[in-house]
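User: Modeling request: complex.
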Amino acid sequence: MPRPPQATSVSPPMSRGRARRIASRHVGMALLLSAVMVLGGVLLYLWPQVRLVGLGYRHGKLLAQRTQVLQRQKELQVELSSLRLLRRIEDIATQHLGLRPPQATQVIYVRSGQQAVGQRRP
Amino acid sequence: MRFSGRFKPYSGPRLRLVVGCFAFMFCAIFIRLAVVQVFQHTHLRDLAERQYSRQITLHPERGRILDRHGRVLATSVPVPSVYVIPQDIDDTDAAASKVAEVLGLPLATVHNQLSAVSTFVWLARQLPPEVGERVQKLNIRGVQVLQETRRFYPKRHLAGQILGFVGVDGTGLGGLEHLYNRALTGIPRQATLQRDATGRTVQVMAGDPSDQPRGADLYLTLDERLQYIAEKELAAGVQETQARSGLVIIMHPPTGDILALANYPFFNPNDFQDPKQRVWQRNRAVTDPVEPGSTFKLVAASAALEENVARVTDMFHCENGFVVRSGRRLRDHHPYGLLNFVQVIEKSSNIGTAKIAARLSDEQLYTYIRRFGFGEKSLVNLPGEEDGMIRPPKKWTKPTHDSLAFGQEVMVTPLQLLTAYAAMANGGWLMRPRMVEHIVQGDEFQFFAPHTRHRVLSSPTLERMNEILVGVVERGTGKQAAVEGYTVAGKTGTAQKVEHGTYSHSKVLASFVGYVPAEAPQLAIVVIIDEPRVAKWGGEAAAPVFKRVAQQALYYLQVPSQQTQTISLDTALTPISAPPAGDQEMPRIILPLGARAGEREPAHVVLSAGPTIEKERRP
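Assistant: Request completed. Predicted assembly structure:
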């Protein structure tokens, strides 16, 4: 027995208001998506820039610190050189420690292998 | 989705209007963009760069001067300087009083500077760091602190005349600082920085500001310790003899390296502006030629032997100390009769030497004088070197030949004199003296190799002259130059100074030149004492200084003396159980382990007061 034809439902024509709502929802979605993408892009672009600026400041500070430390190192080197004044060392050795240069008979040179004894390069 | 009716969301006059507006705006933006990015690109980029970028000039730090072992003799240190921008100062009176107090300057002077009609005025330069900090803490608008570099000589007067000095603007004005100013100064470099609105550095755009350029480092042939020995003993010698000034040079004969060059009174380059010191800032070893006196007898004697016009056994009558030759009166310091060639030099007889020289022609004598390097610059790398003076034979007068024989009518620099004796110690080869060994600029290395000029004498003559010069110290006028345990060869000299056109009887230049050990010379040394008042002869004033300098220098250089024991390494490493009976002190053993190539200071093993062997490296 043939089946009776199935009734097909035909949607009624869309009202203007509904169409506008749907269209505006789509446009809104698209705009939102675009805004998010633009914002994301901007953030992606700005983040390294901000990071670069931050690192730049830090670099500048470290450079200044480095200059200060180098300056201090320099001062200490100069102080060290001054402390190594031979007159000062000789005074300490002879006057405070009571040292004196050895006599020729107190010095013994040791020959090591083929090396010429005492022929130190001036 | 279907739209029905009249509604068409993307059409209609309103949409067209909006699209048109947008299109117009975009066109306008695009056109503007094209104008900005393409047509005005260069101009705008320059404007922007000027606004946010800053180009700084990195002035190189002046290079250091170091001795042959890398010990610093001259370096630069950062120091604060204070400047003012007068128009930025709000309250001149208040600022002047505060600044004057901190800087320790008269109030009127500071006030004048602060009220100057100028955009930039230096207030005080190269101040101690703490003063700079105090000025900065005042926080006065228009009064700024700037970091400059100042030349500093940590060893003070050590080698002061050689190093020279640097002016407040960083330019070398004397000595090696002047001669090598360009190398030491270096080349300035640019760096570009990005800055923010407050002027803080955001980013380095070009160049690395942390990579501060530097001038070249100058490594000298000088040895700080030998220089110290020379200066110490020279000062003592000058003071003992109550002399006016003095000079010591130590040279290494095989290379011509100047190991020490001391001028007394000293010159401290840290206080180069001190007017008292200015007189002594010249390096008289090369700038002031002098009449050498008897030390010059070397030339006539060796020339006579080399030309075979005299033999060491030849006898010369010294006229009992006085003779008139070629219209000139010749005197000896002591009356001598008949002396042989060797004795003439040992006893430093002027008359005997004149008679030896008389066997040479004028041309021969002149040739040997020139061959020893007199009358021309030695080309040492030191500024202000003089040629000396020796006239050609055609300009000689009758007594010139005799005068030249004992060192008159000729002017030589102390360095020329030493170089001539160093040639005797170097197998007859005359070397060019060397003060700068090498220059290091970053990765670049410039080496000044030892330079042999020519051979002065043959080996047989050298041997004979060596024996004669040893005799001078053992038996002659230079006995006080003898160094215990070493054989010294040398010659004394006592040159009368010229005063008011004639030779002075009171003012002399006492000198001793020699080398040691005579059998294998390691050092050639000249000592000159100017106008000694206590001991006037070279053998009394200069020879003792030579002795003390040579003794300490030989010990420092570990040149074994005849008294020094030499033992094998095995013996040295054998533990000593007990000190030898009767010996109060254990011997100090210095063991050179042998410097490897490139090692500047050899390592040592020092065994002192006991069997423990400690390894140490010389500082």
